[in-house]
Amino acid sequence: MSRFPRDDYRTLGRYVPDRRPVEVDLTDNTNLWGTHPAALRVIREAGEETLSRYPDPYAGPVKQALSRRFGVPVENVCTGCGSDDILDAAFRAASSGSGRVRYPAPTFTMIPPFTSMNGHLDGAVPWSRALADPEALLDGDPVLIYVCRPNNPTGHLVPRPWLEGLIGAVAKRGDEAPLLLVDEAYAEFSGDSLVLDAPRLRRVLVLRTLSKAFGLAGMRVGWAVGPTEVVDEVEKARGPYKVGRLAQSMAVAAIDDPEGWVRGVVADCLESRSRLLSALEERGLVPFPTAANFVFLPLEEGTASATALALREQGVAVRPFGGTTEIGDGVRVTVGPWPIMERFLNALDRVREAAPNAWAVPDPALRLKAVGIA
Ligand SMILES: *Cc1c(COP(=O)(O)O)cnc(C)c1O
């Protein structure tokens, strides 16, 4: 056995999303209304010192803007190069390695890689089991628990009482409690967030991002709220200077949101989402109910990648999920402005005419039940 590369990195790969050019890209849940106009003004007016000087090491100005908008104390907020960076830092802060990471599956595809990147052990728990008993996530004394709410890729919002039960069970472990991460990347679209409760909870960190509703995925700014004893440790693990100077200025402008752009985009998205769900149901399909800016559409087993490919040939890219725990095959579709959704529905109709069998899902209700939404 050689010293390099690390043995436990052998199965780890790079993240390789399909980024071939396509007319309509509905694969990554970014903001199809574009970016924040106040952030664009910042780019246009940026001076030389924006590039030549280091930024504030822990993005103090961003924390202050978040505190103004969301009413959370500055000392309870941390930031990162996207919320992925905060997740990664939290995985590092939770344990020096070889600890168990528990999460209801399926969930955010970055969780298994962050687990192995940080030398932890994978501990997926199927959603149906976690829903029946949140304490299943505490089996085997994990160092970290991850819950995505609303969940990616299903879109469902696990009920708040369930989450509160889990938070209580974690707190009961006292000093032996694992760190509980609640990923709220899509909270703007669900209208429910734990951000205001997070400062007084034990061993909890609630993560948010500017990559989705705020339209700033390209600038990589994430933020999180928790008790100071969690936030301080995660920030130490994260290290300084993760959010660049231009990104900080744009984030502040977008968070202050003088023209209420985010509210308008979210309202439009929710309208588009309900029209899309109706349009899919009118076609006899069974999209999962969703609290996010995307919709999961279940498909016949083994047909997800062929379906995504066929849609791509019609100029529309969606994210395929094949043989996924609990939910089998399906495609995840980002919700955008209605004309884009009409474009998607047209492509879908053409693909369905060519391969009608892929759309006859044997028992969609069973899959919905697995994630507790039927
Ligand atoms: C998109 C997404 C994020 C955001 O990641 P960033 O690094 O902030 O761009 C985080 N969690 C989930 C579940 C997501 O889908």
Describe the structure.
The protein has about 375 residues and is α/β, with parallel strands linked by helices. It folds into 2 domains: about 5-30 and about 260-370, Aspartate Aminotransferase, domain 1; about 35-255, Aspartate Aminotransferase, domain 2, CATH 3.40.640.10. The protein is about 40% helix and about 15% strand. The chain has helices spanning about 35-45, 50, 60-70, 85-95, 110-115, 125-130, 160-170, 185-190, 230-240, 245-255, 260-280, 305-315, 340-355, 365-370; strands at about 25, 75-80, 100-105, 120-125, 145-150, 180-185, 205-210, 220-225, 295-300, 315-325, 330-335. The strands form 2 sheets. It has a 7-stranded mixed β-sheet, with helices on both faces. Helix 7 (about 160-170) links the parallel strand 5 (about 145-150) and strand 6. Helix 1 (about 35-45) packs antiparallel against helix 10 (about 245-255) and helix 3 (about 60-70) runs parallel beside helix 10. The radius of gyration is 21 Å and the shape is globular. The chain starts with about 25 loop residues before the first strand and ends with a helix. The structure holds pyridoxal-5'-phosphate. The site of pyridoxal-5'-phosphate (PLP) has 14 residues, from helix 4.
Reported by name, the CATH topology of the largest domain is Aspartate Aminotransferase, domain 2
Query: In this structure, how is the largest beta sheet organized?
Result: 7 strands, mixed
Strand order of the largest sheet: 2-8-7-6-5-3-4
The unique ligands bound to this protein are:
pyridoxal-5'-phosphate
Unreliable runs: none
